[in-house]
Design a protein that fits this description.
With 198 residues, this protein is an alpha+beta fold. The chain has two domains: 2-80, Glutaredoxin (3-Layer(aba) Sandwich); 89-190, Glutathione S-transferase Yfyf (Class Pi), Chain A, domain 2 (Up-down Bundle), CATH 1.20.1050.10. It has helices spanning 12-22, 41-44, 65-75, 89-113, 127-138, 151-166, 174-184, 187-196; strands spanning 2-6, 26-30, 54-57, 60-63. A four-stranded mixed sheet has the order 2-1-3-4, covered by helices on one side. Helix 1 (12-22) links the parallel strand 1 and strand 2. Helix 1 packs across helix 8, helix 3 (65-75) packs antiparallel against helix 4 and helix 6 packs across helix 7. The model has no long low-confidence stretch (mean pLDDT 94).
Length: 198
Amino acid sequence: MIKLYWSPRSRSFTAIWLLEESGLPYQRVLTDINTGAQKAPDYLKINPMGKVPALVDGDAKLAETAAICAYVADRYPETRLAPATDDPKRARYLQWLFFGPSCIEPALIQLFTKLEVPSRMAAWGSATQVFDVLDAELQKGPWLLGDHFSAADITIGAGLNQAVRVFKMVPPRPSFDAYIDRCVARPAFQRTEKIAAG
């Protein structure tokens, strides 16, 4: 059975949401970052970075939220959370799946720290560019792949909800509000909110 190592009120939210959407049986293993459990030697064998979430599935062990999403969606195609490798939509799916950690998270750090980084030197461009590009894409809706909800929506939806509604670091826009509303309306998202609250 899949084991997800998690902690309340953390980035574990995204991985829990993914597993709740998948319908796969899984076990949550509390790894409370407030007590330092993520630095225990046994846990560091799973994730040497000492962060949550991490996932164990048989002999497979991995960390990093987007990697967990990619792994589960590909390993269990019956979940229909990823286009097949021969589907042309696969390219856009991968782009948006990794847009969260490679663009949204650095943009949020830039906003939070008020860090001035020339856009030509920042891998994410600029915070303004990141959210303008996302805004334009989400106006096409309802999901990043049109009518098909995917693991990419989980990584983007979780991150955008945190950025706009939880931490209020990014001003709301009509496309953001409509997209977040669609995410929040999903039963798996609602179950995840209850679980992740601790």
